[in-house]
Structures are given as structure tokens and as C-alpha cells.
Amino acid sequence: MIKEEWRMHSALFGNKRFAFYPLLILGLAFCTSLSIIAFQPSFSLLSILLFVHVLFFFFGASIGSFGTLGREFMNRRFGQASLLAYSSRNLPLSDRTIFSVFVVKDICYYFAFWIIPCILGFSLAMPIIGIPLTFAPVYLLTLSLSFLIGMSLVFFLSMIYARFGKWAATALFVLLLIAVVFNQKSVSGYPPWDFSITGNLNDIWISLGSILLFSVLALIFVSFDFPTKKEAYENSLKRTSKRFSFAKSYALFWAKDYIDIRRSDGGVGKVLFSFLIPLLFIWFLLPFLTVQLRVNFLVIFGIFLGVLSSSIYTQLTRYDLFNQYLFLPIKTSTVLKSKVLGYAVLNLLSAAILVIAALVNSQTAFLLPAFVQFVLMSFFALSVTILYTGLSPSLMLMDVQTLLKYIFTIIPVILILVFIYALGPVIFTLGSVGIVLVSIILLKRAFVKWDFAPHQTF
Amino acid sequence: MAILEAKNVTKKFGTLRAVQNLSVSVNAGEIFGILGPNGSGKSTLIRCLTGQIKPEEGSISVLNIDVLQDPVGVRELVGIVPEQENPPSFLTAEEYLFFVAQIRKMKNSEKEIDSWFRFLEFGDQRNILCKDLSRGTRQKLMVAQAFMHKPALAFIDEPLINLDPVIQKKIKEYLVNYAKKGNSIFISTHILEIAGEICDRIGILNKGKIVYQGKPKKDLERFFLSSVKHV
Ligand SMILES: Nc1ncnc2c1ncn2[C@@H]1O[C@H](COP(=O)(O)OP(=O)(O)OP(=O)(O)O)[C@@H](O)[C@H]1O
Ligand SMILES: [Mg+2]
């Protein structure tokens, strides 16, 4: 996700502003940890630690899909930009070596910009419940391990996906999931977490062993599909846009988006992955939080589902640039509108997930308010994303200032949604209407803004 | 009759005046060449004239449309070959032309697309993804894209730079014939021979200012060097 853009980002926004990124992350991690601890006095240290370790596992998992990137690594990401990748045919280095270097570089980037600041922020908040700062090195170790386990596991799975197809990867994933679900005991004994409590050295060996095993296997079997082989495709734009003809004047743009995603490396799988992994995370951890908050699980889930869904917009815009359209007789807002509609349709998927969540938790009674919350949040998050980032969310959200603006616009609305729900149906209805109106206004402003933007940087 | 008329156009990027108080006009049936050193503002001028960016000052009228009022309306009528060719990455060349044809609401675009692929000698390249095409081929694609709908005025920013001699010659001839039919072309180029050969009039740009506008002089190279140096 982020890794694809950070180089471009640092070139675009200058290194100075970029250097604040770790500080920002540290601050955010500190505040989040503090608020979790403050909101949840009944939380035991054990559960907080488990929560954080699982969080880092999922973080690693969400960025670990190197395995499908064999080609992209060489081509899109680094191809033109990086001398190293270009010289891969001139230097006496194997593809695998260069690929490994890229993976290691990526990991270093995540550690410098995310992992270490997060862990420090977390450790700084811990003294509040009496855990001295001297424990920071322990967490640094165990949380890093947890991150790496998640990452190497997904690296491995994504390699399987690229090599043996989606069914093999899904089967393996399901097997692993079943193994975890049926061994609840071994989950509670998640090695890095266990070490942070018991100091049992075996945990470290198990963690390191599995990281090594997964990544070495992945590195050995990862396949490189070089762009030297130019694939020919038959013209499917016409056919595809006919299929989308119900979208009227936007059919053409939908067809283009559809083709882009289908033909991009990793394709639909990657899109689903980047959405489903954080979702899984929320699914597993929310019940745990909401019990303490005494707010209905499903309603909170709806809100977070809404925030996550806005990442669909990022996927829809991944292959668009302003300047692709600038010389054509078309307004940027027309392209944006086609994305908004596509987004609305794809949100049906998220809605389905919400229904499943209601059924699984036997909370269908709360489905309506949860659904309203989901729609409100999703629409609002979309409007804000478009207003701040236009057609380039994945790139622009790497700018600290834009990211901060985004976060500080989204968080209050999450809180407002929780509060108006708690205040009863009348306030909830009024508040909902208010949020819809605000979202519409923001969206309209966004359209005007991007139609008249100077378009210089992109 | 002037079909493009720009008066006192100024475009700033921060404190830099990329185009300064510039006036230029192009007549129907004319090939107008804009010359100038790197960074003199040729591409910026073209982007202003086609409503891609908004100048701070000045007025621009193209085919009787006020560009500042209706930039999209202007782009419906003209064709543009941008300086950087970056067609959408996962469409094939053929799909890309179809995409543009649809945006331009062209009827019977398939025939037109076929004839362009034949004319520019695409061969099997038409079914290759744009991102996998060579630079020259991408540039050819952008030329096809700009002329497909037979615009009365086309802006082309360095169209020949990566093309092989055969294609260069073909396109040059095409441009000359195209103008003979009463259409106009606004072309920016570094290749002085081309300017001397095909342009009816030229403008020489230096540091955002136009230092000469008129018939191409006999010894264009010497003239170009001296006019750029004097300012
Ligand atoms: N988006 C932008 N932001 C800031 N400055 C810009 C931008 N685009 C162009 N410039 C500046 O404006 C000036 C003119 O640039 P322009 O691209 O128009 O020159 P050019 O004559 O087309 O050059 P070349 O022959 O190299 O294509 C340059 O100094 C350039 O750095
Ligand atoms: Mg230029």
C-alpha cells in the first residue's frame, strides 16, 4: 500500500516535511495508547499487551504481499526510477538478490517510519499503568517480532498465490485460520506476546524460526515475471463498457477502472487483501473493546467498516493521474463522479459484510442503526478523501499535513457518531441528516476544487 | 482570419514568470511553430492556450471560444499532443484510442482507429499495454489520439522527437497536407529544420517572452541563436 509511493512522496514534498513523519506517528501512537488505557481502566495489562501484539501482527500482514510483486518490483515501482533495478541486467547480481535487497529496504523503511515510532509512543504511555520505561526494549523486541511474523506469513502466502493461484493460497489461508481457531490455547500463547510476559526464551526461538522459515521459503520460490515479455490483449474496453451500460455516461470510466484492476499485478486479490485484512482485525478485536465501552458491537463495527471502506476509493484511483485527462475534453470532476458512483456500488460488498457480522453475532436487531452508521461514515470519509486528495489519495495521504488534516477531520466524526447514537433515536436521526448534508457540501467543494486546481504537481 | 488569439498572457509559477505578457495569433490553414531554448515556456504556453492551466493575466480565444471561461469546450474542438506521453497504464494502444474516441463522442471510431494504426505502422503493437510500449510508439499513439477527430486546430508539443525517420517524414507530410485543407497547427519543436520546412510562421520564445514572430528566416539557425542571445 504505502510502500509504493513513499519514494515519490519524498521527492514531491521534500525531505524536510517527510522527516516529521516518524514524530507524527510517535505522537499518534502515544495518544492512542493513552486513550485506550484511560478508557479501559478494567483492561488488564495482559489483554492490552495481547491487543498491541495482534495489532502489530496485522500491520505486518497488511503490507507483506511482496510475493505478488515480483514483477512490479522490477517494473513499476523501481523500474524506471531506480538505477539498481535497471542495472540488474548489467550487474552480476541475480534477480533474487536484488529483490531481497528491495524487501529488506522496505522493511527498514517500515521500521524507521512506523514500527519504532509506534513502539516508542506505546512505551511512553505505559508508565501510566505502572510499567516503567525500562520495558521499552522488551516491547521493541516482541512487537517487532510480531510485525515480522505477520509480514513473513503474508509474504509466504502471497508467493503461493502468485505461484500456485488463488485457490492454493485461499486453501492454505483457511487451513491456517482453522488451525488458529481450533487452537485458541495456542493463540493465547502467541509467542512474542508470551515472551513479553513470561520472558520464556523459547518464544523468541519459535518466533525467529517461523519468520525465517516463511521468508526463506517465500524468497526461494518467488517468481519473477519480467516485462521483457510483452503480453498482447484483445480489445475488451468496448465489451466491458457495454456490460456497464447501466452506469450511463460513466460506463466508459468504470470499464477502464475494471480493466486496470484486472490487469494490474495482484489484481482483484490485492484489492481484497488490503481491505479484508484490516477488517478481520477489527472483527476480532472490536467485541473485546465494545464490551468495555457498553456500546453495541455492531454499531461500532459499522462505523469502522465505513472508515475502512473509503480505502476502496484509493484502489479505484490507483491507476489515474490528473494529467492523463488534462488534454482531453473532460472535467476532472466527471472522472471523480464516476469514481463516487463506482464506490457506492462497491460499498454493497461492505454492506454485505455488515449483514454477515449481524447474523454471526445474532444482533440483527441492531442492523438498521449499524447500517446507517456505516453509510454515514463511509460517505463522509469518501468526501473528505476526495476533498483533500482528489485523484491521488494513495500519494497525497503520504503528506504529513494532508494526513493530519484527514485524521483530525475523521476522528471527531467517529466520536460524534458514537455520541448521537447514544443520545437516542431523535438526535440520531437529526445528527445523521446533518452529517449527510456536510458530506454533500464537502463533496461539491471537492469537485469545484479539483476542476480548477492548478494541476502543477501531478 | 485568426482562429487563435492570445493577448498579454502571463503565467506564473510562484515567483517565476514562465510566460510573460505574451501575445500570439494563428490563422486558419497555418502551421505556426514555437521555438525556444529549454525552459523558455513553450509547453507552459501550450498548456495555457488549451485551457489546461489558468494564466494569471491575459485573454485567450480559440475557435471563438474564451479559453478561460470554457476550457473543456476548447478541448472538445482542438487536438493536443502533450509533452509527456502517459496514456493510462493498463489499457492497450487500441483500447486507449477507443477510450479517447468515446470521450470525444466520435461515431464510427473503429475505422478511424484502424487507419491510424496502419498509417503509423503499429503492427501488433496495437494490442500491447500502453505502459509496455516504447517511448516512440507511445508518442505515435498520442499523435493519433490528437488527430483522430480531425480538429480544426491541433497543438503538438515536440511530436517528432523520439520517432524514427520514416515516421517523422510521414507525420511531417501529414501535417502539411492537413493544414492545406484549412486546418491549423500549433507546433513546438527544437528541430529547426522542421520549423523552417513546414511552418508558415514561427514565434521565438526566450525566458517567457516572445522575441520574434513572423515568417521563418532563411538561415534559421543563425537567426535563432542570435535572437535568443540578444535578450
Ligand atoms: N508545474 C510547474 N511548476 C513550476 N514551474 C514550472 C512548472 N511547469 C513549468 N515550470 C517552469 O516554467 C518554465 C517554462 O517551462 P516549460 O516546460 O514551459 O519550458 P519549455 O520551453 O517547454 O522547455 P523544454 O524545451 O525543455 O520543453 C521552466 O522554468 C519550468 O521550470
Ligand atoms: Mg516543453
Describe the structure.
- The complex is a heterodimer of chains A (458) and B (231).
- The longest helix of chain A has 46 residues, at 136-181.
- In chain A, α12 packs across α13 and α18 runs antiparallel to α20.
- Chain A contains 21 helices and no strands.
- Chain A has 458 residues and is mainly alpha-helical.
- Mean pLDDT of chain A is 80; it is low at 1-12 and 70-88.
- Chain A has two domains: 1-232, no CATH class; 264-458, no CATH class.
- By secondary structure, chain B is an alpha/beta fold.
- Chain B is built from eight helices and ten strands.
- Chain B has helices at 42-49, 71-77, 93-103, 109-119, 135-147, 165-180, 192-198, 220-230; strands at 2-13, 16-27, 31-35, 57-62, 65-66, 79-81, 153-157, 184-188, 201-206, 209-214.
- In chain B, the strands form two sheets. In chain B, strands 6-7-8-3-9-10 form a six-stranded mixed sheet, sandwiched between helices.
- In chain B, α3 packs across α4 (109-119) and α3 runs parallel beside α5.
- The longest helix of chain B has 16 residues, at 165-180.
- Chain B is globular.
- The two termini of chain B are 31 Å apart.
- The chains are: A mainly alpha (458), B alpha/beta (231).
- The structure holds adenosine-5'-triphosphate and magnesium ion (MG).
The profile of the biggest β sheet of chain A is:
none
Largest interface: A-B, 34 and 36 residues
Alpha-carbon distance between the two ends of chain B: 31 Å
Give the number of helices of chain B.
8
Q: In percent, how much strand structure appears in the residues of chain B?
A: 25-35%
C-alpha geometry of chain A: globular
Residues in helix, % of chain B: 25-40%
